[in-house]
Amino acid sequence: MALTNRLVIIPTYNEKENIGRIITEIFSLPLAFDVLVIDDQSPDGTASIVSAMQSVYADRLFLEQRPGKMGLGTAYIHGFKWALRNGYDYIFEMDADFSHNPKDLIRLYEPCAHNEADVAIGSRYVKGGKTENWPLDRSILSYGASLYVRLITRMPIKDSTAGFVCYRRQVLEQINLDEIQFWGYAFQIEMKFTAWKLGFRLKEVPITFVDRKQGTSKMSKGIIKEGILGVLKIQWQSLSRQYTHRLRRVPQNPAHSPHQSQ
Predict the structure, then answer these.
(1) How far apart are CA 217 and CA 219, in angstroms?
(2) What residues does 208 pair with on adjacent strands?
(3) Which one, of 68, 188, 167, 187, lies nearest residue 118 by Cα?
């Protein structure tokens, strides 16, 4: 039986340089977190590294292997459903490449644990947040994307594409995860937008986002295009009265047996 009600979901594809170190750092934090790695058949052996570490971190480290590269969004949806089935109360999204500092997991957890927010977002664009080691063109693209999302959707979030997030269980229980449409850049936007439209409280927590030092970025032109067109599609659909009805899921069994917190 797990000893904590906090789960960090880490999707991976060819992250052998980073995965062992990021898991070790998470397990070294003063607050306990479990880790679920979702690997899409990384040819570099990422899953084998995680599997070997499971003997060291029994009941804290979990591995789900999928048959191939299926997209970031579907990996997180897979992880969310796994987390709900296994009774976790706080579910985190996190990259494997150290662009997110494991120590900031605690800072994301606190507003959700203290009932100040239902979704805590690690933000580069609020006071105190920043990026490091980014080329100018990427900085402009990222900030411009977040500004574009705010202008189109009116969602009061400055870093809508952020992928370092803590969800309270109640949020993921009430979102119909099967209706989330996007798998790439727009996935993060759609999840935040849906939570906001369903009335949940979103809070941005300043973080420093560091460009990866090991491995290869997964960003592509297709993912960027999905983000641009996806925002328009999300906003257009939200004008329908049926939008929140389609995205809201009434839990079949809202009662669950939470893990013992540490």
Answers:
(1) 6
(2) 130
(3) 167
CB of 40 closer than 8 Å to CB of 123: no
For tokens 């993921």, the residue is 172
**Residue 185 backbone zone (phi > 0: left; psi -120 to 50: alpha; other: beta):** alpha
The pTM score is 0.88
CA 58 to chain centre: 24
- Provide φ and ψ at 121, rounded to 5°: -115, 125
Q: What is the pLDDT of residues 2-58, one digit of tens each?
A: 568 999 999 999 999 999 999 999 999 999 999 999 999 999 999 999 999 999 999
Taking alpha carbons only, the member of 118, 227, 121, 120 closest to residue 174 is 118
Task: Read off the DSSP letter of residue 36.
Answer: E
- Strands 165-168 and 119-123, by their bridges, are antiparallel
Q: Please report the DSSP string for 43-75 in residue order.
A: TT-HHHHHHHHTTTSTTTEEEEE-SS---HHHH
39, 69 contact by CB (below 8 A): no
